[in-house]
Amino acid sequence: MNKFVRHDGLVAPLNRSNVDTDLIIPKQFLKSIKRTGFGPNLFDELRYLDEGFPGQDASNRPKNPEFVLNQPRYEDASILLTRSNFGCGSSREHAPWALEDFGFRVIIAPSFADIFFNNAFKNGLLLITLSEAQVESLMKQVEATPGYRLDIDLAEQVIHCPDGTTLAFEVDSFRKYCLENGLDDIGLTLQQADAIKQFETTYRQNNPWLFRAPVA
Amino acid sequence: MAGRTLYDKLWDSHLVQQRDDGTSLIYIDRQLLHEVTSPQAFEGLRLAGRRPWRLDSNLATPDHNVPTTLKERSVGIGGIEDEVSRIQVQTLDDNCRSFDIEQFSINDERQGIVHVVGPEQGATLPGMTVVCGDSHTATHGAFGALAHGIGTSEVEHVLATQCLIQRKMKNLLIQVDGELGERITAKDIVLAVIARIGTAGGTGYAIEFAGSAIRGLSMEGRMTICNMAIEAGARVGLVGVDQTTIDYVARRPFAPTEEQWEQAVAAWQDLVSDRDAVFDKVVTLDASEIEPQVSWGTSPEMVTGINGQVPDPASISDEPRRRGIERALEYMGLHGGQNIKDIHLDRVFIGSCTNSRIEDLRAAAEVVRGHHVSSSIKQAMVVPGSGLVKRMAEREGLDTIFKQAGFEWREPGCSMCLAMNADKLGAGEHCASTSNRNFEGRQGYGGRTHLVSPAMAAAAAIAGHFVDIREWSFNPERETA
Ligand code: SF4
């Protein structure tokens, strides 16, 4: 997992609420054997005019010019600004995988679905919850200002806006720690490697039959 | 101090670290891997530059989307016609090779459904913690092992750390006492349990199945019961260790031998709940009242006895329940009050990690012997749970009995249990199935599943509809010998 300390990036507005994980990444792509490579199929049904299937070269597919991420001005966006209840529906971890693979590092919304929230942090995405009014105001500014960027300082827990104002945000201290140190669950557990080894040594002495190769 | 339940003991013996936030680090003895939920975990390891913590704790086999026809199987991985399935199976093969993980590959005789293979090999042992990226991992609890399904991130977590971050569950005791009626099987017990407590009845609990009726079951029967704990909402199902457990495990390839065997057996004696252990909830069932069970709806709790009727929604006052039943009946194409025995059947599937072991096949063959599949049945298939089960059945001549009766005899895999390979129901078709889930579309888009025991499925294939197995006319062995 990449470390997250401070991020300055272009903002794309996805002006709708209740974006579910099926919309984020449709089910046919779950047949993939990869955790990466979902980027081209992020928001597949919104992004393309035809029906997508796994393994296809997305570059030749007809794009929906109306869809926000297809507009040239948002091409390099890494911050997604959206509405309430983002990430609802199925628990698929493919949703954060797709957002991350596309290049998003931060998602800002008034609220997120529970499971998605957990899955996203596990995969190095920073989810920021702001009030409806703050999101509304940002949404207007982003839409009105080509090249609108935000500078997000995780350590200080503030968003620096282009007009010089700042917006404070909350983040759970454990999750913040994981992000800042680039630690996923595995990284954290591995910090306890000595404890695991110690347990394993005693356990092995007491249960030697669990540590043996099969008899051919 | 109050006594501990079997679950408490297993938890305590694997506890590496307890944390302030209520989570614990639990040591994992065995991870079983298959092709569908492992690729991203291996990729994650690779991207992070990590190695598996303990190679010998992992064992892999492809099962979910391997084809079951000899035509495709005889060629190995290259013979899998569906490209996506082929890539998944190939990827498991590649990952096992590159990480040096033991795999029973597609053409290995030991290949099969992970939950059949683990116990068969002795890779599931009493007292272990067993995980797999599959919810039916509960099966392995039949050995007094703490076993449950996990997600892909957790598969990777176990590969990398040999541990899982867990919260302790509560204890639920399901006590089934009394004598089972003739021809009543483990499948009927577990369906009756689910009908009683509901599909969410076990949510948040580890279920221990106990009582004289459970003690009287073979290991295969106990596996059938624990397999479906998840259908009652519980991730874990358990049966305490006794001589039946130990006899089953003895001399299996992964089981300890000689001195270590003695040592292990001594340790396993403690793998039962203490007499004074306290359970958070207790449910009791009288085994003698259990009839052959048949599911009529789209949830495993929608079950009734063979002589029963499909419920009439009009008679149900509880609004959400009534709507649930109405929706299920609409999907199933059934009407309230219809006799279970009058449901028209199109296909019969004998297989899955619930009922594809040798005893299941023997029970089905005994019913089939000397009969022929009804002309109204489009397809009746038997899919052994592993290559070794298949070979054993063939040595006993069971394949001949099935084939002579008009059944298809297939290669091992998950097959029509979840229709990820070519074995599927057509829309609207009714299937008598020995599997564990009757969800909408589970066995194919629009397919209608009725969960039953192997003997009941076999009899339904012959009769063309459900019949009471207790009234079946069995043919003596010599007639077809
Ligand atoms: S047989 Fe069915 S339930 Fe069992 S592991 Fe395979 S797909 Fe899952």
* Helicity range of chain A: 25-40%
Largest sheet properties of chain A: 7 strands, mixed
The number of distinct β-strands of chain B equals 19
Describe the strand arrangement of the main beta sheet of chain B, using strand numbers.
5-4-3-6-7
Q: List the domain count of chain A as a whole number.
A: 1
CATH superfamily of chain A: Aconitase, domain 4
Bound ligands, each once: iron/sulfur cluster
* Beta-strand content estimate of chain A: 5-15%
CATH class of the largest domain in chain B: Alpha Beta
Oligomer: heterodimer
The CATH architecture of the largest domain in chain B can be named as 2-Layer Sandwich
Number of strands of chain A: 7
Q: What best-fitting shape of chain B do the alpha-carbon axes yield?
A: globular
**Topology of chain A as a string of helices (H) and strands (E):** EHHEHEHEHEEEHHH
CATH topology call of the largest domain in chain B: Aconitase, domain 3
Structure description:
The complex is a heterodimer of chains A (216) and B (481). Chain A is an alpha/beta fold. Chain A has one domain: Aconitase, domain 4 (Alpha-Beta Barrel), CATH 3.20.19.10. Chain A contains 8 helices and 7 strands. The longest helix of chain A has 14 residues, at 193-206. Chain A is globular and about 70 Å long. In chain A, 33% of the residues are buried. Chain B has 481 residues and is an alpha/beta fold. Chain B folds into 2 domains: 1-291, Aconitase, domain 3; 293-471, Aconitase, domain 3, CATH 3.30.499.10. Chain B contains 16 helices and 19 strands. In chain B, the strands form 5 sheets. Chain B has a 5-stranded parallel β-sheet. In chain B, strand 13 and strand 14 (303-305) form a beta hairpin. At the A-B interface, helix 7 and helix 8 of A face helix 2, helix 4, helix 6 and helix 11 of B.
Highlighted features:
heterodimer; A: 216 residues; alpha/beta; Aconitase, domain 4; seven-stranded mixed β-sheet; 8 helices; 7 strands; 31% helix; B: 481 residues; Aconitase, domain 3; 2 domains; five-stranded parallel β-sheet; 16 helices; binds iron/sulfur cluster; Aconitase/3IPM_dehydase_swvl (chain A); 3-isopropylmalate dehydratase activity (chain A); branched-chain amino acid biosynthesis (chain A); amino-acid biosynthesis (chain A)
